[in-house]
Amino acid sequence: MGRQVQFHALPEDLEAFLGFVRRRDPIIVTLRDSNSPNIIELEKPSAEMHVMTVWNQGLLNSLRRNHIVMPGRDYYSAGSSLPTLELSPSALCEWNGRHSMLCGRLYGSFENPVPGYERWYNSLARWIRTHFLKNPFPLIEHVGPAAYDWYKRGGVLLPMMIPPALNSTWLSWVEAQDQHRAVFSK
Q1: Cα separations (Å) of 35 from 38, 69, 83, 134, 171?
Q2: Are 22 and 41 in contact (CB under 8 A)?
Q3: The total number of structural domains that make up the chain
Q4: pLDDT tens for the 186 residues of the chain, in order
Q5: Which residue blocks in 10-58 are alpha helix, DSSP H?
Q6: In what helix (H) or strand (E) does residue 170 lie, and over which residues does it extend?
Q7: Which of 32, 110, 125, 167 has the fewest CB atoms found within 10 Å of its own CB?
Q8: Residue 53 near residue 81, CB atoms below 8 Å
């Protein structure tokens, strides 16, 4: 069973979060999926647009990628059964002619109990909950300070995927954000 904390975050928000994690634990941040089995540390994970693996070397001595063979594509993946965390960054996009941001998440899979793993996840999730703002709209839990400033300037906060249809439900979602944002202009 997995657990996640969802958020909207710009690179500066992720940099603050990863700075906390680096001060707390010996981590390496790498891409979750790669064309190579080699584990290569990302130089600037806060600017990454692909799903990443946060590897706490204090919990897991070595990390290996598994070879995945799918029709038309072979790749290597760190997977989710290890005591690592998946970090999906928020993504900027356009929806209905508006600058928008898809949410990201921190995810941990707790199928295989490892001492300290759940406590580590809880401390990182707690940092997000206390340092990011509580999102005033349903679906996504938290918004990083820089992402919140971006939202106040007119950005639209979306879930993890671009809404598939332009319908009254999603239009009312954006209208609620616009009404909330209007409070800042007064």
Answers
A1: 9, 11, 22, 37, 39
A2: no
A3: 1
A4: 789 999 999 999 999 999 999 999 999 999 999 999 999 999 999 999 999 999 999 999 999 999 999 898 899 998 777 899 999 999 999 999 999 999 999 999 998 888 999 999 999 999 999 999 987 776 778 999 999 999 999 999 999 888 877 888 888 888 888 888 877 655
A5: 11-24
A6: helix 168-185
A7: 167
A8: no
